[in-house]
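User: Please run a holo structure prediction.
Assistant: Happy to. Please share the sequence and the ligand.
User: Here you go; the ligand is D-malate.
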Amino acid sequence: MKKIINELSVFLSGNNQSRTIIFIHGFPYDHLMWKEQVEEFSKDYLCVSYDIRGLGSSPVGDGQFTVESFVDDLEKIIEELKTNKPILCGLSMGGYISLRALERMQETFSAVILCDTKSEADNNEGKLKRAAGIKRINEEGLAPFAKEFISNCFGDDFKQNRKEELQKIIGKSSQFNPVGVKGCLFAMLSRTDTTTSLSSIKIPTLIICGEQDSLTPPPVMRDMFHRISKADFAEIPKAGHMTPIENPQLVNKTIRDFLVKNNL
Ligand code: MLT
C-alpha cells in the first residue's frame, strides 16, 4: 500500500499489528533498493520503506535538503503511522539519516541496522568530490554521473555476473530529477559527524558491510562496531556497497538472526 506522508511516497507492506521495520535507502536509489528485504520481512513484520525527498517518486521541492531535514521527514512518517518502537534500517545515506536520528531520538527505536555506512562526515577531499559531481551533472546531465557512481557501488561479482540488473538500476536512477540528486549530494556534503555519539547508542545494533565495499569499507565499519556497546558485525563476502541487492539471502539471514537474538 502506498501512502503520501509529509509529501513523501511511503510504502507499507505486511501485518499492521506487528513490529515495524523502517527501511531507508541509499543514494541515488529509491525504496525498491530494499525489495528483497521487504518481501522477506513483510511475512511477519510491518515493513515501511519510502523514497527520500528528491529521489524516486518523492517530490524535489526547492532541492534544498539537509540530513537534518531528512530526519524531520522520518520523524513525520513515524508520527503519522503511530508506530511503536520501530526497528530502523538504513544503508549508506540512509545510515547517515539513521545515525543522526539516533542522536535526536534514540528512545523512539527498538533497534538499528546500519548497512554499508559510516559516522564520519565528509573530509575536504570528499566535499570536493561532491562538488565535482554537482558540476558534472550541471554540465553533462545526470546519466554519466549516475553510471559512474552506481558502478562504483557494486562489487566485482555483481558487475560481472549481473550486468543486465546493473544497467536497469543505472537506467532508473538516470531518470531521477537532477535537482533532487544534487540536493542529496549537498545534504551529504554538509552532514555532521556522528562518531562521538556512537558510544551513546544503547539499543541493539547490527552492522552489515560488504567485503568489497570501497565507499564504506570493512575497517571503517569495524571501527563503528567497536564504539557501540550492543553491536553485532557481519561482513558479506564478495559484496560491494549494496549488500541488500548483491546478496539478499545472506543479508536477510543476518537480519533475521539479529532480530531473533534480540527478541524483536
Ligand atoms: C550511498 O550509497 O548512499 C552513497 O554512496 C553515500 C555517499 O555517497 O556518501
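The longest strand covers residues 8-14.
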